[in-house]
Amino acid sequence: EQDYLRAGKKTWDDVLCRWNLHLKDHFADIRASELSSDDINDYIFFRQREKAANATINRELSVVERMLHLGERTTPPRVRGVPHFPKLAENEPRTGFLEQADYDKLRLHAHELWLRALLASYYTFGFRRAELLRLRVRQVNLIDQTINLPAGATKNGKARTVVMTQEVLALVTASIQGKQPDAFAFSHDDGSPVKDFRGAWKKMFAEAGVELRKLHDMRRSAVRNAIRRGVDRDTVKKMSGH
Hints:
This protein is mainly alpha-helical. It contains eleven helices and three strands, in the order H-H-H-H-H-H-H-E-E-E-H-H-H-H. A three-stranded antiparallel sheet has the order 1-2-3, with no helix packed on it. Helix 5 (100-109) crosses helix 9, helix 6 packs antiparallel against helix 8 (166-176) and helix 6 (113-125) crosses helix 10 (215-228). The longest helix has 19 residues, at 54-72.
């Protein structure tokens, strides 16, 4: 965690999620000095039987590999020797887009308010996942109708402000109604912040009869749609944070 914070990375929550969901049960009770290639291969086989994608398995094992390398580089070394971590073949990155007609279908099947608001915000502005899930009520200005991302909340370290469309404004306004300034803008009915919503995301696409898209496809689509509307590329970059 300290290594991630020192490097200014925004993805520690994702790493912690991978550890708690999958890696911990397999690796937590193994001493670093006793970790073998068999342990790694067993994990790969186990996750493949669970139908996890090769890219997902690679990302998960990279967490363990990084832990060991950090221990190897200390003085004195806490880890002496890191076993080989095989890299599984991955599919080419998808370059999908979401068309407006499919977006209109999805809106009808985003049953939770937070999901409708996230979908609209992703598709309109091309936000990154962490930027929205960590959004606080105080970052929403209903008078100016803007969403404000301070420098510390963006991947490239640059502050951004976007003017909400009427659709996004209506959904975000409903999402933050009655909440305190430090509360998360997007939360479940019980008030807990939205974190891992992959299940709801897949269900929405399945019910709408639309081919599943990744969040990054929303980002690509927002950029393309803005350019198609005649927005200049420099403004689009400022909007999406590229």
